[in-house]
Design a protein that fits this description.
The chain has one domain: P-loop containing nucleotide triphosphate hydrolases (Rossmann fold, 3-Layer(aba) Sandwich), CATH 3.40.50.300. The protein is 41% helix and 23% strand. The protein contains 7 helices and 9 strands. Helix 2 (83-98) runs parallel beside helix 4.
Length: 184
C-alpha cells in the first residue's frame, strides 16, 4: 500500500527569519521552474543602509505583485508591520488561492497567525480548497500551529531538497487532477 504525502507541509525551524524567507523564495522558484502553478505569498526582505529595519514585501505568487508590509519606527529601532499593506497582500493572495493554482505557499505561520491574524485566513482557505500548502513555522510557534492545523501535516527540515521532494511527491499523488487543471 502506498502512503500518500500529506497535502500540508511546514518547514520547522529555529533559524533567523530572513534565512527561512530566502528558503521559501527559493522553493517557489524551483516549483515554478517545474511548471507548477503557484498561489500564496512569499516574503522579500531588503536590507537598508544605516537601519536595522529591513524593508519587507510580500510577493503574490499568482500575479507577481509585491506589496510593502513594513513601516519604520520613528525614533526607535526595528520595524513594525503595516496592517494596510498586509491586508492588501492578503486580498491578492486569497484571489490567487481561489484561482487555478496547483500549490499554495504562505511564507510563514508567524506570531500574527498564531494570534489569529495575519495570513491565517489564507492558510485556512488553501486547506479548505484542498490545495497542497507549504508554509514555515518556528519551534516557538509549533504548538499554536498544531492547534490551528491539526495533526495531519508533514514536518520538513529547512532544506530545499526536502521541500522539493515533498512537493514533487504531493504532485505525483495528485497528478490526474493537475493534468486536468493544465489541460495535459
Amino acid at each position: 500500500m502506498q502512503v500518500l504525502a500529506s497535502p500540508i507541509a511546514a518547514v520547522v525551524h529555529d533559524a533567523h527569519a530572513p534565512a527561512v524567507d530566502r528558503l521559501m523564495l527559493d522553493a517557489a522558484r524551483r516549483l515554478r521552474a517545474r511548471r507548477i502553478r503557484l498561489a500564496g505569498l512569499v516574503q522579500h526582505n531588503l536590507e537598508k543602509q544605516g537601519s536595522d529595519c529591513a524593508r519587507m514585501f510580500l510577493e503574490d505568487l499568482a500575479s507577481g505583485k509585491q506589496v510593502l508590509i513594513s513601516l519604520e519606527r520613528r525614533g526607535g529601532t526595528g520595524c513594525r508591520l503595516d496592517a494596510a499593506g498586509l491586508a492588501e497582500a492578503a486580498a491578492l493572495g486569497a484571489r490567487g488561492i481561489a484561482g487555478g493554482a496547483h500549490f499554495v505557499i504562505i511564507s510563514k505561520f508567524g506570531a500574527q497567525e498564531a494570534a489569529g491574524k495575519g495570513l491565517r485566513e489564507e492558510i485556512a482557505q488553501a486547506v479548505l480548497l484542498a490545495k497542497p500548502l507549504l508554509t514555515s513555522v518556528s519551534l516557538r510557534l509549533l504548538p499554536a500551529f498544531g492547534t490551528f492545523i491539526g495533526e495531519s501535516w508533514t514536518r520538513l527540515p529547512p532544506e530545499l531538497a526536502a521541500i522539493e521532494a515533498w512537493a514533487l511527491s504531493t504532485a505525483a499523488t495528485r497528478q490526474p487532477a493537475l493534468d486536468r487543471a493544465v489541460g495535459a
